[in-house]
Every structure is written in C-alpha cells, then in structure tokens.
Design a protein that fits this description.
245 residues, alpha/beta, six-stranded mixed beta sheet, 9 helices, globular
C-alpha cells in the first residue's frame, strides 16, 4: 500500500533521513519510536510533502513519485490519499468543531455543504464529540481538540493516517481519551503510521514497531519480538531509557 525506497532528507549539512526503506500494508498499524532528532516527524512530513525529501521514491497505491522530480499534481494526489494528525491539533481557531471538519471536505474534496456537514457529524459522533459541534477550539480541552483533529482526518477517508505524537501536547489526564480513539481505529483496521513516545500504547496497538536512530530504521518487527526480554534488542534499551527520564 505505502512503500518508501531510499528516502533521504537533509537540512543543510544535517542529515535527518539517511536512506529510509519502509513498506506499510493495508490495515497495518505501525508505531515509530526513537529519541528526539532521529527523523521520526520528518519522515511523516516527507510522506505527504509537508517537507520535501532530497532523494527517494514514495509509492502509495498506484501513485509512484520520485521526490526529486515531483510536481504539484503528484503532491495533490498523495495528500488526497493521506491525512495528518499533528502534535498541536492545527485546528482553525475561528471555526467551530463542526466547521473545522467541514472546511477540508469543501476545499479539497469539493463536497457540497450539506454532504460535508453530514460526514462531519458522523465522525464527530465516532470520536464522542457530537454534542460539541458548535463549540470553538478555545472552549475545548486539549484532548477534545485532538479528537476533533482525528475526526477531521477520518472525514477525508484517507488510505493512511499519519499521526505525529498525537498525545505529546496533552496533560497526562487527557492522554487516555485520545489513545482510546486510536485504539478503536486500530480495531477497525485503519492503516496508521504513528510517531509516539507512549511505549505501552505502542506495544498494545501496533502490528509493528519501528525504532529510528540517526535518521535510519535500526529495528523493525512485531512488539512481541522487539520487547522480548530474552533478546538483547535496541528497542528494549530505548524503552528503559524512556522510563528512566
């Protein structure tokens, strides 16, 4: 479904992605873990061209893009097939919860106002916030805002959802409500690529876990493999460092 071949990205002399190779199959949930600065967020941003890679091939479905020679049509095609959930929600502050979901449906998918409203209400209900449809982001908790951001992503009916540390900006007591929504999506076999620092959540929800170091994927496997105490894996060492912080 999603295939990345030899993806590279540098900022000046700082090499952020150093030849990433990754395949994601339909319905798979992959958690990406690793220390700050290892290229996790940049990888997601390069997939949907919020950042432009320097080299590599990105294939999504029947769309194949050489990042060196991409054009506006390529980028638009990829963005129609993907949806991004950001750390800090990225909601329109001057729009209600409902209109935050309606806006991209109208502008990107060119859907009629009535149809867009019906779709938006459907996904607000799915994340448990139908009663907040007329509320502005400033009146919502961080957890509620992130759930609306997830509903907005779902409403676009993407082939894959990219989540960039969806709980990192939340107070600890609000993390659970967002993780519960993501758990429900995993049970529905929504294809997701999730950058996260929540180790227990990654072990529970992900079909595969990827550990990144210095812009490379250094481990890739099932949680049961990478967290097997009998094996001397880098993932176990990384998780122990996270717990000690």
């Amino acid at each position: 479904m999603l295939k990345i071949d030899n993806l590279k990205k540098s900022f000046g002399t700082n090499k952020i992605l150093d030849g990433i190779n990754l395949t994601v199959v339909k319905g798979e949930v992959i958690a990406i873990i690793g220390s700050s600065g290892t290229g996790k967020s940049t990888l997601l941003r390069c997939i949907n061209f919020l950042e432009h890679g320097d080299e590599g091939i990105i294939t999504l479905g029947n769309t194949i893009i050489d990042v060196k020679t991409k054009n506006k049509n390529n980028i638009l095609t990829i963005r129609k097939k993907t949806a991004m959930v950001f750390q800090n929600y990225n909601l329109f502050k001057n729009k209600t919860a409902l209109n935050n979901i309606i806006e991209p449906l109208r502008t990107v998918k060119k859907i009629s106002k009535n149809e867009a409203e019906s779709i938006a209400l459907k996904y607000l209900k799915q994340v448990g916030l139908e009663e907040k449809k007329d509320v502005f982001p400033s009146k919502l908790s961080g957890g509620q805002q992130q759930r609306i951001a997830i509903a907005r992503a779902l409403a676009m009916e993407p082939e894959i959802i990219l989540m960039d540390e969806p709980t990192s900006a939340l107070d600890p007591e609000l993390v659970g409500e967002v993780l519960e929504v993501i758990r429900s999506l995993a049970k529905e076999h929504m294809t997701m690529l999730i950058v996260t620092h929540e180790m227990n959540f990654a072990k529970e929800v992900a079909d595969r876990i990827i550990l990144m170091e210095h812009g490379k994927i250094v481990e890739d496997g099932k949680p049961s493999e990478l967290f097997d105490p009998s094996k001397n894996t880098r993932t176990i060492k990384f998780a122990s460092r996270v717990k000690s912080l």
